[in-house]
Design goal:
Length: about 1250
């Protein structure tokens, strides 16, 4: 049946349909919606749109079409070995290694082409350093998955299903991508008649992947293909014999990979193959140029073979050199034959031919000035090509260098022997072999100064050119997004490229890369400061549009690191960022940044350093929204930057016009560097979080049996670890941070934190709570199992020892610092064991359960804490108690083992001398119990975390409070210093982790309206004032909403909490309701007149409201609603209500003033004021917080909906309708105007209370801070 013959609407119960058909079976009951399954072609389009694929990675990519394959009769033995391995080898990986120029890529190209013709090439990925997408691993898995899906029948649907289930998979870790897009689909694929049993993956030049850690991960992932049962994969990997590849391969079982070294092949075999190569290629040159039949002579070919010294790249370069100008083929061959034919090392022979090729490009008679000009031209053209982190097209080179393309062509045309120079100017110029780059950049190898390229000088020129290009082209809203909250996904990549040209994109992404590798001077500092002052926000916008916003922090810190000669620690950001810099922005062999204080770049002007420091804080704060809505750098970025921000001042002319007066924000940046949110999937679940010892990684429980690893510097999700238990209740890192143990109800799993690979699964017999800890060398895991402790060897998975003898469950476990002993605790005892023999060395007796034990760093003392608030200190060598300390439940040793910090239930911390037990100081300042303490690595500072939601830093010597960090919304769980002591990490029950600047010592000047959270807000009818009241400080503040935004008055007089406020219709009076059982009437005009107080026989007053004519005031208290006449003030009547204390109470008069609506919790009553009777009563579905009549008098507007009332007085029926959309609204982290996002709210400015009236928005915070924003459109 054709699709056109189907009815428009059809519904069928118990329906079945065959995939791709329109055959239905079932009971037709009237209507149906029909959607056919996607065809393979549609699936292909869907995958192309959702999976980022590197188009240059495949062996058959357009850019690789000139890449050679092995000639017939060459490499025969090796190719046969590879083919035999594919057909029947037991190993899943074949590693083909070889020195530069030995022909690895040619062999890989040949193998890929061979299996492609047989439809058994699953995928190919040819890495190329500096090759853009093929220079790193970001698109490796997605590209392999896409290619596999297009060759293996049935796999496309499996991959699409995986993408549909997890739409963000392309942004997740390589391990998650590999599991979801490759291993998972291949494991579930149904075997069909067209599906082969084996497919080949070809991975070439793996050593050219920029990030060495990614190389290790890729090899670990590739090794996992051995687990496939239905469709098997054979992986050919080629690389140089670098340690970056050799080391991870050595970690893989030797039986799982077959290795072959090209440079170990017998020389005669290599010479034979090179001879064939030269005969074929020189023969083709002879035919194309109609040279005589005996050209070249066999002796010439033999001489060339000897000169090649076993390097195919030498032979290939020689042929290209001869072919470049066929008219000079004889002369060029003779030139090569004139070179010394001695037996030097291969690299030297390669240098000789490169020198010959380059010398030939400038043959002729030139004077000194012309020679210098040619030298500069060569450096200008070739320098950027060999130092750029990704290939540049001719047009991009022209744009970056500001030169005429015609001036480039003559130089490039003479270099076809060593460069791939395309005809199209939009196509990239590429090195034919990376050894040419190495040659030109080495003064020792490139002995001719005319061709040597000074890398620092080229980088300096490129940096200046990038700055010039950006200054010329960057501007606000460069892609014409228009709307301030517009999502960048509304733009296609083509639209972005049309507005930001390739050379501008390059400049934005790589100017810092060039800057840090160059020599700079004072002029450069001035230009850089000028660029930041004028174009910093334009640059951030462009980076965000290019999908590189997350790179900005690292780039700016990299820039700042060039100024580190003074060692001024103006900038402190998470160590993780520093550790990632090299891999993010440089090749694996990136130079170490020079910190010589005499270097000009290290004596940067203080103004520039301060500006860069400000830039880092700006990016850290606003990076999350840059990734989504780039134009928010001009909106949220400028609105919420502190008033002292240099960037805020520099870009004051860029403030959003629709917010003519910006809210009053903090003066300086806060000490909170990062707030990491959504570290768990569900808000209601227990929040487990662990910080790695190196401070780079966080592990958090995502759901009941899943942990996620996060980058502590950026907040980016790194890995998802699925535990196979019913639930996971804890996790711990190894001391070297390389392994994570997740502890479930039945098993403990060990994970590689770099790759996410499951290393080991340990089963235990009991589903009771378990404790796990690593030995100091990270080689052993100790795990409690019911009433025993087992020690496991992590590398082999074997149980080393079982420690027995406990009568109760084991509650705590820890290794001594030297790893020779381990202490375990239970009810009544702590036992110290020898970790080699398993012998119990000491038994320390307690009267109650021991909940925590810890060794001093020198291993001489042990502290154990009972659940009865007793801490015992033990001399380990003697097994004797040094002293008992009463009233404490937690302990931490200083790094020098001389001081101990004790947590007390009375909200204090005591510092005591370990040797004498003398109290050194008592730290007072927290208002609730202290839940964690930690010493800084140098022992000079102590950090404490408390249930009072704060973190405090104390001077360990004096006990002085150095800083108090506020920002968490719930009690703290833990606190830890980074290894360098510069940052502090705190985790809270509010499901956030905050990263703090531990060196922050400035006084914070936060503009606070109240000392506690705002509870009530009222707007004047003319919108010129707003009143706020806080429950804690018993005050009311009146604010100007039209001019300065400052507080006009502070009204004091209530002795209890203020619960409600309301303006009179003429805006001259303000009424307030308080727990002190009074209503106060304040002069809102600022006359200073004393307030009038209304009292009655009621309880605490919760709400007040004026009638529309201002003649009546209503106040609601527990059990009573009182009505007052306003002129003169007198009690009119009282309406009795239920005597129930409810948090939320609201009052509202009808427009005619005859009816009063009263809401207490969910109950709503309408009172006839004259008769004092209840007209109707009904229940809402939620506690009402606000209430007002609409103009008709038959509708009530609440804080969530409209309640339509029947006009019949005896009917209680209420119709619930959605509230009409407000012109302004706030939802989660965005402020909206007419449903459209306009202003993003940073973490510290997300309110706990919001009040909106027209275009005025009041943000209230738990700290007592109030922000008022008046939007004008």
């Amino acid at each position: 049946m054709a699709s056109s013959s189907l009815p428009d609407h059809l519904a069928i119960h118990n329906t079945s349909a065959t995939e791709g058909s329109q055959t239905f079976a079932g009971i037709n009951l009237g209507t149906i919606a029909y959607a056919p399954s996607e065809t393979p072609l549609q699936l292909n389009d869907l995958l192309q749109k959702t999976l980022p694929v590197s188009v240059d990675a495949s062996f058959s990519a357009r850019k690789r079409e000139r890449e050679p394959k092995c000639l017939a009769g060459t490499r025969t033995d090796l190719l046969n070995d590879i083919y035999n391995w594919v057909d029947g080898g037991s190993q899943s990986i074949f590693w083909l290694c070889g020195l530069a120029g030995t022909g690895k890529s040619t062999i890989a190209q040949t193998v890929a082409a061979t299996y492609s013709t047989q439809n058994t090439l699953g995928a190919s990925f040819f890495f190329s350093r500096g090759g853009g997408d093929v220079g790193h691993a970001e698109r490796f898995v997605t590209t392999v998955a896409f290619q596999l899906a297009n060759i293996i029948p049935g796999l496309k649907r499996q991959v699409w299903d995986a993408v549909s289930e997890r739409s963000d998979i392309a942004t997740q870790s390589l391990r998650d991508q590999w599991q979801d897009l490759v291993l998972g689909p291949l494991s579930n694929i149904p075997i069909g008649k067209d599906c082969k049993s084996r497919y080949v993956l070809v991975i070439d030049a793996l050593d050219e992947c920029e990030d060495q850690s990614d190389i290790q991960i890729i090899l670990q992932l590739l090794a996992e293909v051995r687990s496939l049962k239905v469709v098997r994969l054979r992986v050919l990997v080629t690389s140089r014999p670098d340690i970056s590849v050799r080391y991870p391969l050595n970690q893989i079982n030797r039986d799982e990979h077959q290795d072959f070294a090209l440079h170990d092949i017998e020389r005669s075999i290599v010479d034979h193959d090179i001879t064939i190569f030269l005969r074929v290629n020189l023969g083709r040159i002879r035919q194309n140029n109609e040279l005589q039949a005996d050209w070249p002579e066999e002796s010439a070919i033999s001489a060339l073979v000897r000169s090649s010294n076993g390097l195919f790249i030498w032979a290939a370069t020689a042929c290209r050199f001869i072919e470049q100008d066929g008219r000079l083929a004889r002369d060029r061959l003779s030139l090569l034959l004139q070179e010394p034919n001695n037996t030097t090392e291969p690299a030297r022979k390669l240098d000789e031919i490169y020198t010959t090729v380059l010398t030939n490009t400038v043959r002729g008679e030139y004077d000194e000035e012309e020679t210098l000009r040619l030298r500069d031209l060569f450096r200008q053209v070739v320098g950027p090509i060999i130092v750029s982190p990704e290939p540049l097209s001719v047009s991009s080179l022209v744009g970056l260098l500001g030169k005429d393309a015609e001036g480039f062509r003559p130089t490039l045309s003479n270099l076809h022997s060593v460069l791939h120079v395309p005809e199209a100017e939009s196509t990239t110029v590429q090195l034919l072999h990376p050894s040419f780059r190495d040659f030109l950049l080495s003064r020792k190898r490139c002995s001719n100064p005319q061709f040597f390229i000074d890398e620092k000088l080229v980088h300096h020129d490129m940096y200046k050119n990038c700055l010039r290009v950006m200054s010329r082209h960057l501007r606000r809203d460069i892609c014409s997004l228009g709307r301030p909250g517009a999502d960048k996904t509304s733009l296609s990549r083509g639209e972005v490229d049309a507005h930001i040209q390739p050379h501008v994109q390059y400049a934005c992404r790589f100017w810092v890369h060039h800057y840090i590798r160059s020599d700079v001077d004072t002029e450069d500092h001035n230009k850089l400061e000028s660029f930041f002052r004028i174009h910093f926000l334009h640059w951030l916008e462009a980076l965000a549009l290019l999908g590189c916003a997350s790179d900005a922090v690292g780039m700016i810190h990299m820039l700042n690191s060039g100024f580190s000669g003074k060692r001024e620690k103006l900038l402190r950001i998470p160590t993780r960022i520093r550790g990632k810099l090299k891999s993010m922005f440089a090749f694996s062999d990136a130079p170490t940044i020079d910190t010589n204080p005499e270097d000009p770049k290290n004596v940067a002007q203080p103004k520039l350093q301060a500006l860069i420091h400000d830039a880092v804080r700006f990016i850290l704060t606003f990076r999350p929204v840059m990734d989504v809505a780039p134009l928010q750098v001009y909106c949220a970025g400028l609105v919420f930057s502190p008033t002292a921000s240099i960037i805020k001042k520099n870009f004051s002319n860029e403030f959003p016009a629709w917010l003519p007066r910006t809210p009053m924000v903090s003066e300086n940046w806060t000490p909170c560097l990062q707030t990491l949110r959504r570290l768990t999937r569900f808000n209601h679940m227990a929040f487990y979080v662990a910080c790695s010892p190196d401070g780079k990684t966080l592990a958090s429980a995502w759901d009941s049996k899943t942990f996620k690893l996060w980058d502590a510097g950026s907040g980016k999700a790194l890995l998802t670890l699925e535990h196979d238990s019913r639930y996971v209740h804890d996790a711990t890192f190894s001391p070297d941070s390389k392994t994570l143990a997740t502890i479930g109800d039945k098993t403990v799993r060990l994970w590689d934190t770099g790759s996410g690979k499951a290393l080991l699964t340990l089963e235990h017999d009991s589903d009771k709570s378990h404790v796990a800890t690593f030995s100091p060398d990270s080689k052993t895991l100790a795990l409690t199992d019911n009433k025993t402790v087992k020690l496991w060897d992590i590398s082999s998975g074997k149980a080393l020892l079982t420690l027995k003898g406990y009568l109760n469950l084991i509650s705590a476990l820890t290794f001594s610092p030297d790893g020779k002993t381990i202490a375990s605790a239970s009810k009544g005892t702590v036992t110290v064991w020898d970790t080699r023999s398993g012998k119990a060395l000491q038994t320390c007796n307690h009267a109650h359960w021991v909940r925590a034990i810890t060794f001093s760093p020198d291993g001489k003392t042990m502290a154990s804490a009972e659940d009865t608030e007793i801490v015992e200190l033990w001399d380990i060598s003697l097994g004797k108690t040094l002293r008992s300390l009463n009233g404490f439940y937690g302990v931490a040793f200083s790094p020098n083992s001389k001081t101990i910090a004790l947590r007390s239930m009375d909200e204090t911390i005591e510092l005591r001398d370990v040797g004498s037990g003398k109290t050194l100081s008592t730290l007072k300042g927290h208002s609730e119990v202290v839940c964690a303490v930690a010493f800084s690595p140098d022992g000079q500072t102590l950090a404490s975390a408390s249930d009072d939601k704060t973190v405090k830093l104390w001077e360990a010597g004096s006990g002085k409070v150095l800083q108090t960090f506020k920002g968490h919304l719930r009690a703290l769980k833990t606190v830890a210093f980074s290894p360098d002591g510069e940052t502090l990490v705190s985790a809270s029950n509010d499901n956030t982790v905050k990263v703090w600047d531990a060196g922050f010592r400035e006084g914070l000047r936060t503009i606070k309206a109240h000392s506690g959270p705002v509870r009530a807000v009222a707007f004047s009818l003319d919108n010129k004032m707003v009143a706020t009241a806080a429950s804690d400080d018993k005050t009311i503040k009146l604010w100007d909403t039209t001019g300065s935004g400052k507080a006009l008055q502070t009204l004091k007089g209530h002795s209890g909490l203020v619960r409600g406020v309301a303006f009179s219709p003429d805006n001259k009076m303000l009424a307030s309701a308080s727990d002190d059982k009074t209503v106060k009437l304040w002069d809102a005009t600022g006359s200073g007149q004393a307030p009038r107080t209304l009292k009655g026989d009621w309880g605490m007053v919760r709400a007040v409201a004026f009638s529309s004519d201002g003649k009546t005031l209503a106040s609601a208290s527990v059990g009573t609603v009182a009505l007052w006449g306003t002129g003169p003030w007198k009690a009119l009547q009282q309406l009795r209500t239920d005597e129930i204390l409810i948090e939320h109470v609201a009052l509202a008069f009808s427009p005619d003033g005859k009816t009063l609506a009263w809401a207490m919790g969910r109950t709503v009553r309408l009172w006839d004021i004259v008769s004092k009777t209840v007209l109707r009563e009904f229940e809402a579905s939620y506690d009402l917080q606000s209430l007002s009549f609409l103009d008709t008098g038959f509708s009530l507007l609440t804080d969530r909906e409209v309640l339509l009332l029947s006009d019949a007085p005896d009917e209680n029926e209420v119709i619930h309708q959605p509230a009409p959309p407000q012109s302004m609204s706030v939802h989660e982290d965005w402020t909206y105007s007419n449903g459209e996002r306009i202003l993003w709210l940073p973490s510290e400015y997300r309110p706990q209370f919001v009040a909106i009236h027209g275009s005025i928005v009041v943000f209230g915070y738990s700290s007592g801070q109030v922000l008022i924003a008046n939007f004008v459109f």
